[in-house]
Design a protein that fits this description.
heterodimer, A: about 375 residues, alpha+beta, six-stranded mixed sheet, five-stranded antiparallel sheet, 20 strands, B: about 230 residues, mainly alpha
Chain lengths: ~375, ~230
């Protein structure tokens, strides 16, 4: 996930689109200027067409405007949009929405009310199946999203979470090259969110389809995204892999956290054995989903990480990693500091009181031990 | 009980023909017009909307008067037709059809406009992202979602044309088989003190109008319940 990222992605200057073709992964190039009464959105970005890219920012920062421009739902005459080698919008061409192969999931329910679930699911499929090589069959999507019991129901009979699940399945069945999710969870209550999140994760992981996710919920972003574009007042202020982006000071305010990618080694006594750069981490295995080879994403809140100069032997904390201090920054609260650490080239953050940091005489470059009290598994 | 003269039957025929063609033409014109008005992006929108609503407030005689001037032998359209070797349109079925179309325009556009607004942009955006072009969107999304609006628009247009009088009298006069519609014939019967004939036609018109409206509103309520489910 880290290695693929081209280095220019991390610099603000946009490189010419040609350079991207050398990579295996295409890019979505967006050059956009929207000027309305009290609102201005200006950006020139290259978004990798791989994994989940989150467009993150507060409400009104221009996320949805950007997504709608990419979809072609709004026509901004000055915009330039290229999907890999396909021109979607240039100086004198504009590919209409129905010809762009996008799957869109809107914020609120968007099921066509005069059709039942099955008819909704097949609406896009039927329109593309004759012209394209079908990659996703209805049976597979129905199976993946567990839609079978809903097929004959009318949209009005479904719960909010079920509706979004059908909308997701419908978008997938239209055989998109790019999935656009406009705050798909925002209109749902906590319980429905929990119902649909696993399905979004499943789609992201199993279908290998590039996704753009608009969200103002850090929780959703951290669970789903691989890359992140941080928007503020109509500008992209930062971009890059999720783990690095979480170090941005903007996130400290909403609860600093880190994401570690760990490799599965085995499972013993209901504990997953994972390694980060050769160091062992043990995490309670998920109860109702089977464990699997591959990599796991661990979410760790900065306040759940403690630091010690020597490894702790007699502690209830199982997970201890040897780390190096990269930087020490001010945190949201004046009495606290945020310590940026590194473990096997992956960033990890710890939130300490200023007092503790002084007592341990922490300095950048110092090697020490991080105790991790709680880990959330995705 | 029903004792209609041949000229009464002829008037019924002309009236039904006029209502049918007016409704058909107005659905064809009114649908794109209402759709365009519902999008609400152009700055011409307000002016066009006022123009569409004009027949609601204007005395039919004013409308009929100007159409008579325009379509008659000396009017811009009438004289052009004459120059092309055709007949001008005053005192003809085509003339009163044009008059009816203009006169009933708001009764088609208003219900459709309301239905399109209630539907909103979202279903169309959804259909577009799923690969449906504009025609596909119209037939498979707009038509089923707004069928109540279409039914009301068609009925109101039909019923309103049924009761049209002023425009037709000004523009078409009272030529049996050509421009003599029921409302005009009733007027003629009354003028001739032929009260029983006038009574029969009036009552028939009243009952027909009520029954049509009653059936359609009932139907519309059922359709809306279905769609909102």
């Amino acid at each position: 996930m880290m290695s693929f990222w081209p280095s220019r992605w991390c610099s603000a200057a946009a490189a010419p689109a040609k350079a991207a073709s050398r990579q295996d992964v295409g890019v979505l190039t967006v050059d956009l200027l929207v000027q309305q009464q009290n609102f201005r959105l200006q950006l020139n970005e290259q978004i990798p067409l791989q994994g989940v890219t989150a467009l993150f920012g507060r409400s009104g920062c221009g996320k949805t405007t950007l997504l709608r421009a990419i979809a072609g739902l709004d026509h901004h005459p000055t915009a330039r949009i290229h999907f890999a080698e396909q021109p979607w919008q240039t100086t004198d061409t504009f590919m209409p929405v129905h010809q762009r192969r996008i799957g869109m999931v809107f914020q609120e329910s968007s099921l066509l009310p005069h059709l039942n679930v099955q008819q909704n699911l097949l609406f896009g499929y039927q329109r593309r199946v004759s012209r394209l090589q079908v990659q996703l069959q209805p049976a597979n999507v129905i199976d993946l999203l567990e839609l079978d019991p809903l097929l004959t129901q009318a949209p009005g009979q479904l719960s909010g979470g079920q509706r979004q699940r059908v909308a997701l399945g419908r978008a997938l069945l239209s055989q998109p090259q790019l999935l656009l999710l406009d705050e798909p969870l925002a209109s749902l209550d906590q319980q429905s969110r929990q119902e649909i999140l696993p399905f979004l994760q499943k789609v992201a992981r199993e279908l290998n389809m590039p996704m753009l996710l608009v969200s103002h919920q850090l929780e959703d972003v951290v669970k789903l995204a691989d890359h992140l574009l941080l928007l503020q007042d109509g500008r992209v202020i930062s971009r890059g892999p999720l783990a690095q982006q979480l170090l941005q000071p903007e996130f400290a305010a909403c609860g600093a956290m880190s994401v570690l990618t760990a490799v599965y080694q085995g499972c013993q006594h209901f504990m997953l054995q994972l390694t980060v750069g050769g160091q062992l981490l043990q995490v309670p295995a998920p109860v109702n989903s089977p464990t699997a080879n591959g990599s796991y994403r661990l979410r760790i809140l900065a306040r759940d990480v403690a630091l010690s100069l020597q490894p702790l032997a007699d502690s209830s904390v199982t997970n201890q990693l040897a780390v190096t201090i990269i930087a020490i920054q001010a945190a949201a609260h004046p009495a606290e500091v945020l310590v940026q650490l590194e473990v096997a080239d992956q960033p990890l953050q710890a939130l300490l009181t200023r007092q503790s940091a002084q007592r341990l005489a922490l300095t950048p470059g110092q090697a020490l031990f991080a105790q991790i009290k709680a880990v959330a598994l995705d | 009980m029903l004792n209609l003269a041949p000229e009464d039957w002829l008037a019924i025929q002309v009236t039904l023909k006029l209502c049918f063609y007016t409704t058909l033409i107005l659905l064809l014109i009114g649908t794109p017009l209402a759709f365009w008005l519902a999008q609400g992006k152009s700055r011409w929108r307000t002016a066009i909307q006022a123009l569409v609503a004009l027949p609601l407030v204007l005395p039919p005689t004013v409308l009929g008067f100007y159409l008579l001037l325009l379509l008659g032998p000396h009017g811009a359209i009438g004289s052009t037709l004459e120059a092309l070797g055709l007949r001008h349109l005053a005192f003809s079925f085509s003339g009163i059809l044009i008059g009816s179309v203009i006169y009933s325009l708001p009764f088609t556009v208003q219900p459709l406009l309301e239905a399109f607004r209630r539907m909103g942009q979202r279903p169309l955006e959804v259909a577009a992202t799923l690969g449906a072009n504009q025609w596909d969107q119209f037939f498979n999304v707009v038509l089923p979602l707004c069928r109540g609006g279409f039914v009301v628009a068609a009925t109101l247009t039909f019923a309103h044309t049924l009761g049209e009088f002023g425009v037709i009298l000004m523009l078409g006069g009272s030529i049996p088989g050509e421009t003599q519609v029921l409302s005009v014939l009733i007027y003629d019967h009354t003028e001739a003190m032929n009260y029983s004939q006038a009574h029969q036609l009036s009552l028939g018109l009243l009952v027909t109008a009520f029954v049509v409206l009653f059936i359609v509103y009932g139907l519309n309520r059922r359709l809306e319940r279905e769609v909102s489910l």
